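Hi, here's the filled form for the chain we discussed.

Project: internal
Contact: R.S.
Residues: 361
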Amino acid sequence: MIQLKTFNKKELEDFVSSGEFRQYDFLPITEHRAMSHIHNPKATEEQTLLILAFYEGRLAGYMGCLPDFFEIEGKAIRFAWLSTLYVSNEFRGKKVAKALLQKALDEYNNHVIMAEFTKEAEVFFHHIGSVESFFPKNGKRYYFRLDSATVLSGKKTWIKNFRPLLHLSDTIANTLIRMKNMGTGKSKFRFEVLNQMDTEIKNFASSYHGQRTVDEINYFTTNPWILEGRKRDDNYFFSSYAEVFKYVWVKVYDKQGNLETVSLLLLRDGHLRIPYIFSNGNSSIHKFIQFLNIFIIQNKVKMMTVYNETLNEKIKKSRSLSRIYEKDFKRDYLFRQELLQSLPKDFNPHLQDGDGDCMMT
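And the returned structure, exactly as it came back:
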């Protein structure tokens, strides 16, 4: 028999602060991730943030929900991003995942979206039915440094025996790449890199309409799901720590000293992403690409994933970004039909890369 338990803001805070969440065979959430959910400015006091599934009294799995809403003609259409779905191997085949997903659908009146999901979760979500992919994003992943020692050894066990040789070849290749990029660390335009939002960034970005306000974006960067450091939560099976995990705000100026581009970058263990970009036009995007090249070299970025189609088009035509390889990617957003039916037929949320739970990991 499956029993389900839901947690709203107050209940989740009590669950974590009491230490009760640590009593199980595995962690259903981390403390810092729980605090981030609790302080989500788009979540109401009563909305469900976490669902636990118990089988014969033992924790069998869990699902996390990130409340959000689309504002249409002054009305909030509320929904949730399904951010985690985990079932212990011991309880596979017991229909635990189905029970968790059905409970999430019930809690949010079938108004849910899933993005950045595993193939297994996608198949299961489709199996439940009434799901459609809307507003997909075509993206690119750009590679700047070789890391075959990590990539290949993770695919085949026997390759681990050759890891020292792969590491040596990576070092030689990356040294040559670094020598090739020498002298590209200077720019002919002004830019600034900040660890947190300032008033100029807030005023500039606020002039652009988007799914998230600037204050909401700032909230998520100051309440991360992943903390920087070598520490690990071994019993939590989603990301919680990384050796490098930081949000960076970027300001790019024109010749007259006027701010023309603002962007939020996310760097995690050599992987760079661009959750948000606000820009005045083509010439400013070109400068931003030049800045990216400088940032990538200085921070030894291994790869960058971009779903902003305008930016990708400019990168394609630009010689400023010194990549060694690129690969096509696609991000689907799986909407429940009930949510789509609540939206205008011509509705477009104009989702940026960081919308949903994508900027949190």
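Let me know if anything looks off before we file it.
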